[in-house]
Amino acid sequence: MPQTADDLDAVAVRTWCSLALDALGREREAIDAINVYPVADGDTGTNLYLTVESAAAAVEAVFAAHETGTSVPSTADAIRAMAHGALIGARGNSGTILAQLLRGMAGVLADGTGPGSLRLALATAAASAREAVAHPVEGTVLTVADEAAAAAGRVPDGAGAPAVVRAAYEGARTALEATPGQLAVLGRAGVVDAGGRGLLAVLGALVEAVSGRGPERAPSALVVPVAPAAEAATDCPALDDPQDGPAFEVIYLLEARDEAVERLRARLDGLGDSLVVVGGDGLWNVHVHVDDAGAAVEAGVEAGRPYRIRITHFAADRAHARPEPVQRAVVVVVPGDGLRGLCAQAGATTVLARPGEPPASGELVDAIRRAHAREVVLLPNDGDLRHTAAAAAEQARTEGIRVALVPTRAAVQGIAALAVHEPDRSFDEDVVAMTAAAGATRYAELAVAERQSWTMAGICQTGDILGLIDGDVAVIGEDVPDTARKVLDRMLAAGGELVTLVLGEDVPDALADELEEHVREGYLAVDTVVYRGGHQCAPLLIGVE
Prior knowledge:
The two termini are 37 Å apart. The chain contains 19 helices and 16 strands. It is of the alpha/beta class.
């Protein structure tokens, strides 16, 4: 839990990113569901999550570079890394605006992080985001950012940083609740602005990172009853009919001089709408909705060097078009090389989760693409990857791939699901069968205690062997064989027909023989299968079906 502080240090920046990513992961689907402006393509929550994921990864990279020493990164390094990560990973209209908000804050906070600096940072962020949008519209995330900054600015001098960020959150909340009355399309749909709702989640995470406690009031409802909205004056065609607009969304990173970017803004503004250009110091993120995607990219080539070009065809999203299934694949996250080979032999596309390095959503999307299938079943095999996997699945769906996420929480559940995979039956039937197999598999693992700690099974000491069942410590032992036997006994007390053992790289085969004999002697009609997991975090993984 973060400590209350009068400034935002590097650790608080890291905590802010982590909390914001968790918050957007929880709320991603709900925010997607209320995305009606500027295009009702249902991806605002996903885009914001992916943007913050990139920001958080950049901050983690800065901390990783200091692991060999005793110091932590400077606040300036952490805040700049967050802004840069958001810039290069920004997705969609909302993600691009959020990246500029973070960049605006970073420009101030890199030179100081006290209460006064936070007030100035929020004001600078709101102003820079508004300047980045070619035709600002009220009732959007821009309005929410403005009101957050204004509320922070009203905090009396002498108040601490927690008071400043909490006031910003409350100001944003009040502004968000008013958005249906400012933007006609929101009023007709009876929802608040999706981008503004995402910004509120990010500000709520900032409150917790600085003060040690999240916002006291629950977030406003995502779908709210409102009176008919006043007709807002705007030249944006999406206001009258969000379905009747340009056919393509074009996004790319651009290396270019400032003067070239100004010419690019004018060129793209004549090609389409929803134009947002953010960044600076030679690196920019360009977002625009156009009918001629090629012309938008050519404009970038004339201005500098565009790369990471992404083009999305809105027509397919609006019609929810899905190609007829011609092939099905399974994408599975595995904790070691041994299981990687096993799953590959079963026909799955694998993503390796190295110790301490869980895959990002971009890696999962790439794996889904590599599968070259119209239908994909995604097995994350880790409860902590649920938000990352959900964001990857949503991104792949925008590309016309039908993706089902089976919420496997451990590798042994993934093995059970893969064992019943049958591509010849219907997609829905296959997903149901795989989900049922995973859900019927209890999972456990052995781990070595890194320090003295209190657990559900009592107090453990450094070096103790911990037996975790379904994610909770159930057994504390002194050696691997004895702890493994006790874990098996607890799991099989509730019944079971098949035990799966996955041995780590340094675990001898003799352990598998001992445990097989233990099961055979104590539990009739229970079979045991053994796999080599290779280099994985846990010395032993256990599954009971």
